[in-house]
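Usage example:
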Amino acid sequence: MEVKLLAYLPSKRLLEALRAEGLEVDADVLLKHISFTFAISGISRACSHQLVRHRVASYSQQSQRYVRLTSLADEAVEPSTIARDPEADMVFKGFLRAAEYAYNRLLSLGVPEEDARFVLPNATPTNIVVTMTGNALYHFFGLRCCNRAQAEIHELADRMLVLCRRVEPELFRRAGPYCFQKGYCEEGPLSCGRLEEVRAKYERLGYE
Amino acid sequence: MEMRLLAATPDVELLIAIAMLTTSSDETPADIYALLKGDERRVHKLLKRLILKHGSVLEHNRLVFLAEAEEGEVLALLLAHRFFEVSRLGERRWLLSCNLRTVLEALSREGGEKLPEGAREALIMALKQVAPRLHERVMGRGG
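Running the assembly step on the lines above writes:
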């Protein structure tokens, strides 16, 4: 997984323009009006499916209709829960080889990419450009930095938060999973129960 | 209403080109950025290929406006396009923001709710400022 901050509208620029007009705004207003654009590559289609469910955002994703997959077995995203178990790893890799064979065979039979892709698994890697406002990012971090989030999107959210904190340290100081933002967990019986540990992590993440 | 651009995401046209190539190539967006950064000729060539109906690539940016307007005028703007974000800064003063897709759709919408007086000119001016090639292309067709 590679995550880069491609562009953002710096809060300083907006604050200076507002001050020139004799106006001041608080952080909540700023977060609503500035956006951050990320270049994300090498995540699984499973991860991008979860990502694009955050609808108050903009996405430009690599098309499987127009871009032919060149290698699946070598580039697929393998969850650590599978990789660490030799038998699970064998099942996973065997399936990838079968899926890759089926994809290439369908292409060789004249099936177009847009239809041959139906045999590709959720582990298939993808690239995507994502833009969210500061507000939308707070909500995204609230859900996806949570210990209950699946590991890949959790890692993605953490990396995006680090990038935001590097360029806007104060604006994103309160960002993190909802338990960190609110001071209590909303997950009820599903809570990880590690509030203090999570708080310590997100107080430091990106600031060290 | 009086409305003018206060600040915007930098390199808007470069971001549009990166988004376009991300969808149609196997290069990563970070590699595409490295390839296109500083190559204006190539960016402009890509923008000429842009199909404006595929508006999602126009969304990777933010334009922030300061407006002096009555509540009714702000409501008219929101009715003309639901994707404007609005904050009230004081009596008759508003902070408005949107992305370039919203700008182009608000400008091109036929029928329906009309943009309040002054908004159209402000949006055209902002388009020219942040994406001059796109402005040339859109306005070259008579808007």
